[in-house]
Amino acid sequence: MESPGQFPYTRGIYKDMYRTRHWTMRQYAGFGTAEESNKRYQYLLSQGITGLSVAFDLPTQMGLDSDHPLAKGEVGRVGVAICSLADMELLFDKIELEKVSTSMTINSTAAILLALYMLVARRQGADPKKLQGTIQNDILKEYAARGTYIYPPRAAMRIITDLFAWAQQEMPEWNTISISGYHIREAGSTAVQEVAFTLANAIAYIDAAVKTGLAVDDFAPRLSFFFNAHNDFLQEIAKFRAARRLYSKIMRDRFGAKDPKSMMLRFHAQTAGSTLTAQQPDVNLVRVTMQALAAVLGGTQSLHTNGRDEALGLPTEESARLALRTQQIIAYESGVTAEPDPLGGSECIEQLTSEIETAAERYIERIDGMGGALAAIESGYMQSEIQDAAYATQRAIESGKQIVVGVNKFRMEESAPPPAFRVNAAMELGQCERLRAVRAARSSSTVAKELSALEAAARNGSNLMPHIVASAESMATVGEISDRLRAVFGEHRES
Q: Most exposed: 17, 153, 177, 425, by fewest CB within 10 Å?
């Protein structure tokens, strides 16, 4: 059996793993306005997080400004509302971006939000080439499992490969995509499907980038992944190990990667939101602890732990702190960081690892036979497989075959639920007023010129990123930039 830090990286991508450096501790946060979210970031930083993780509201995810009719009632609800560079500056006020790693969970509008982030850093005096962090930028799983897409798949793939090429020169330390199995699992997939569909999507992104002329070893070291840490403790540990091993072989044998960093599956993990219950919410602390420990024993590079009250609403400040303390206890008190891959060699873990790898390989072969992930998504194959798995799980819960503590067994007479966090409804009005002020203060002619140049680039095949950056710097809004791309690419409608 190989050692940690050696191909095929089953036992971890680094020789010493957490002996010399712990995983990055992130707490996914964002709500209301940029000012409110900034206060939560400042609080979490004071409590010991080692990386920021930004949640954006649905209008921002869908390329709609806060005053768009379809945004009404959704502004700032499930994340922070970002309409322009002015909002982004407020979001990171008094946070030195060159000194912190930031993860941004954003997909259809990822190129715009990355441009805004880079511009804020530049205004702070930071060197964009030194910025570290991750933009999710994984559109394929949106079509398969989540739904926050804007453009048709092939147009969306073009935006992603343009970002790869641009970031290689402008932000070389930035992870340009976080290929996500998390949302696939949250939609109801099995562990094997999570690995298989995530890696099939990765193959599609890499194929697309290579076809544009990018050399695999020039961009693959900046690819990263995002997995779910679910309930089945041993299966989850094996899942992470199997994903690493399978990916390393795909990169070496299918794509001819030579750089060892191109073969290393680096991943962020988040505990499973879909397993949290509104019943007996304090019990969620136990679930989250087990899931987080599985991610650590599986070798994660970054981790978010969910709050106990997230089945009721956004986490309160106290719940976010307790979730962070869970990571800190695992890191500093449990002793599991003393050995890289401490369960390596366990007959059970090794067998489970091989079983998951083999089953995931079969799925990937099937998807290859269909023409790849894009074709599998366009035909509805991935969606159907996930839906079937979700249905089987729900049937098992309803029949009592699968036990959920507090839901179908060990129920209690429920007392009043703990206080839930609520976003101030008046916030939406203030956000729209600030947006109007931004539009009134900017140069309309400059904005029009930059947006026209962006639309022309979309039509003629030029790289979009320089024009997205220029438009954002002119104070064009997220909605205005997205609308110019909609004018060229159209919008995706699920058949």
A: 425
